[in-house]
Each structure stands twice: as structure tokens, then as C-alpha cells.
Design brief:
Layout: E1 12-14, H1 18-21, E2 23-24, H2 55-64, E3 68-74, H3 79-90, H4 95-101, E4 102-108, E5 114-118, E6 121-124, H5 125-131, E7 136-137, E8 139-143, E9 149-154, H6 159-170, H7 179-184, E10 200-201, E11 214-219, H8 226-231, H9 237-243, E12 247-252, E13 259-260, E14 266-267, H10 269-276, E15 283-287
Parallel strand pairs: 3-4, 10-12, 11-12
Antiparallel strand pairs: 1-15, 2-7, 3-8, 5-6, 8-9, 11-15, 13-14
Length: about 290
């Protein structure tokens, strides 16, 4: 049996595999800085708001115009920040929709610009990122007219799924439902057929394997980036080497078949995904030993 690697003591919900679609933020300062490779610099659209970084005032102005504020939290040379800027803001089919219904403010999570977030909070960009518990970039936070977050997206979203998020907020559906239910209320699209992977196991009693590291992959037939996950990182020897330390299980996030979750609750994959707050596919949830 392979040696088990220590994991975080708590459950770690992720909207996507962190190595695939988000840029993890490392807090520890290295003793000697090396050269970062793979990064791509982003040039934000000229129509992003030139804010004086008084967020409450920005929210007030947006509300008067019938808009919401989007905080786009990024990091220099973050490849998926660049991808989201290019695909979801600059060249998306709904770019005009964003301009008409949202004011977008970009914040660098390692930046030093002073931000007045509300009457009681005046901090730097990086201090605000810490207060908001930003662990990955990009992170997108939507604010309502009271300067309260109504939706948070941790990590990159496909053009289609970001479009759903924009509609969800613009329609103020957050007052009545969750993003997951909002998306599920739409006619399903058949975009993906479940694919085999040599390390995936068919297990319905997850409590039986909860005493060891467990990785649960959530997919569904309307997932537009699941093929990219399988063709990309799940093919890489380095990723497969890490997965050797886990029991690797896939669940259909739309299924109503009975399963037992790691805590021993009788549920379904659909209910389990909703309980975890997973609104995006592919999603991977990691457990440590029990």
C-alpha cells in the first residue's frame, strides 16, 4: 500500500482542481526567490472602472445606475486570470451585457493600493484579500446594493458558466435561490460523456473509505471543461503520482442514486454536491484521514 500523504485536517471544497483552473496563493515567503514560469501578464479592458477604491461609493453609484459591482481579484502573471480576462471579459459574447449591468473593479491580491471597503475598513489590497480569505486567483465577488457579497466564484469559470453567474446576479436570483439550482433549472445540455480513468474507483459507500485520503470528482453531462481536465492534468504523470495516495472516486453531480457520504449520511450525489456548495463542474473535494 502506498504511503499516505498528510492533507488538510478539514474538508477542502474546490470548484475545480486547483492545479487546473486556479492559481493557488502561497502565503509563506520563500528563503530565496526563484523565477516563476508559466505566468501570463494580463491587460485589463479599458472599460473596467477607474475606481478611487472607495468601494461603498462605487456600490452606491452602481446601484443608482441599476448595476452590481464585480470585484475581480487577480495576481500578476496568473495564467488563469489572463485566460478569464481574455475569454470572459474582453471577447465574450456577453461583453456588452457586462458593461450594461456591472461595474468591474480589478484588485491585485498582493497590491498595496489603499481601499476603503466600508466605513470601518480601510486597508491595502493584500490586506483586503486576507480579510476576504482569498486563497486562489482569479476570485470574482459580486456585491449587492448594500455592499454585501451575493456570489463568489473561486477560480476560473468557462465562458458559458460565467455567463450563468452574470445572469444569476443581474436577475437578482440570489434573493430566492442558489447558483446551483439556478443553473439546474435550465434545460440540460449534453456536452460530455463520462470518461474512464485508471485510478477512478466505483464506490457508493464513501464512509467505508473515509479513514484514508479521499478525492471525489464531481462531473455531469453538461460539463464543458471535463474533457479538458481528462485530456490535461489527469494525463500527467505528476498528477497520477499524487492520486496514488488517494482513493479516487467519481460522482455524477446530477444523479439521484443512493450513496453514503464520508460522514455516514444516506444521500445522493446531487444532494451531496449541493450540501458542499459545489456549483461548478468539474469539481474535486479532498478529505484527509477521517
Amino acid at each position: 500500500m502506498p504511503n499516505r500523504v498528510p492533507m488538510y485536517r478539514k474538508l477542502i471544497p474546490m470548484l475545480c482542481l486547483s492545479l487546473t483552473l486556479v492559481w493557488p496563493v502561497l502565503d509563506a515567503a520563500p528563503a530565496a526567490r526563484g523565477k516563476v514560469t508559466g505566468g501570463v501578464a494580463s491587460e485589463h479592458p479599458e472599460w473596467f472602472k477607474e475606481s478611487f477604491l472607495d468601494i461603498a461609493e462605487d456600490v452606491s453609484q452602481a446601484s443608482e445606475a441599476g448595476k452590481h459591482v464585480i470585484l475581480f481579484l487577480h495576481l500578476n502573471d496568473c495564467p488563469y486570470c489572463h485566460r478569464m480576462v481574455e475569454e470572459n471579459f474582453k471577447h465574450a459574447p456577453y461583453t456588452d451585457f457586462i458593461k450594461e449591468n456591472f461595474d468591474v473593479i480589478q484588485l491585485n491580491i498582493k497590491g498595496d493600493r489603499e481601499i476603503a471597503f466600508d466605513e470601518k475598513t480601510s486597508v491595502s489590497e493584500k490586506e483586503l484579500a486576507a480579510l476576504l480569505k482569498v486563497r486562489y486567483t482569479p476570485t470574482v465577488i459580486f456585491l449587492d446594493s448594500n455592499n454585501k457579497p451575493v456570489l463568489r466564484l473561486n477560480g476560473y469559470r468557462s465562458v458559458r458558466d460565467f455567463g450563468y453567474a452574470l445572469q444569476f446576479v443581474q436577475q437578482k436570483a440570489y434573493l430566492e435561490t442558489t447558483l446551483s439550482r439556478f443553473i439546474e433549472s435550465r434545460p440540460p445540455e449534453k456536452l460530455y460523456s463520462f470518461r474512464d480513468h485508471p485510478q477512478l474507483q466505483q464506490i457508493t459507500d464513501l464512509q467505508a473509505v473515509a479513514g484514508e485520503p479521499l478525492a471525489i470528482l464531481f462531473e455531469d453531462s453538461s460539463c464543458d471543461l471535463c474533457d479538458e481536465l481528462h485530456d490535461g492534468h489527469l494525463q500527467q504523470p505528476s498528477i497520477r503520482s499524487v492520486l496514488e495516495h488517494f482513493t479516487f472516486v467519481r460522482l455524477d453531480a446530477r444523479a439521484s442514486t443512493p450513496i453514503i457520504d464520508p460522514e455516514g449520511n444516506h444521500t445522493t450525489p446531487r444532494e451531496f454536491a449541493e450540501k458542499l456548495g459545489l456549483s461548478y463542474r468539474p469539481g474535486i473535494v479532498l478529505y484527509d484521514r477521517g
